[in-house]
């Protein structure tokens, strides 16, 4: 894996909110084609880290390299155009637009100067791929939770990312639905996209992640395979008293 090119490299990223260091000196490397999971108890700083990666927040300290470029001071749009896509923990499609229109917007956003016909075609392809083709003409607010999550992934894929960031896209899904979502992420990986995902559902992490980064109180406390990190005493102790079943 380490012979593959680096797609994301975080060096000492920190983010302060007033008196709280939500992300503290976080460094990690993601290689091309790799599926990297970021786990940790509630409030560990995972979503804040994702916001630093995607450009929602500027870091208080540290640098971020995306596909070999220093993007620390670059906008969300610039990172997106370079190849960084993102699905949100809180799904927020345009509710009155159709499912197809929502994905088309993603396709237009991802490529400056994209043509509408091509964007619409790409959106249809992605609806097929994410199992939403039958719902293309529904208003987005009519979708079920599972379909919402699929739409969120389709919208992120529409920006044609090389690296896809996913924040708890499985949350709230029943186990069978989560398995479908796992298949979707596998197919995304199969198409050559590197995936970085935040997830609380441990069987999903075990099944999907090539490598796991564990955060607690803003810091990376462990990194390794699923097997390694779930046997790490510091990780076990960080999860003590939470409802997460680490050895799942
Ligand atoms: N915009 C903000 N302003 C102030 N504090 C924030 C902000 N965003 C997050 N925080 C705080 O930073 C810490 C990390 O939050 P974050 O949302 O990154 O955690 P998380 O690991 O994603 O948690 P969860 O698993 O519950 O989604 C928390 O203490 C949170 O209250
Ligand atoms: Mg979060």
From TrEMBL:
It comes from the Bacteria. The keyword Ribosomal protein does not apply. Coiled coil: none annotated. SUPFAM superfamilies: P-loop containing nucleoside triphosphate hydrolases. This is ABC transporter ATP-binding protein. The lineage of its organism: Bacteria, Thermotogati, Deinococcota, Deinococci, Deinococcales. GO terms for biological process: D-alanine transmembrane transport; L-alanine transport; L-isoleucine import across plasma membrane; L-valine import across plasma membrane. Keywords: ATP-binding, Nucleotide-binding, Transport.
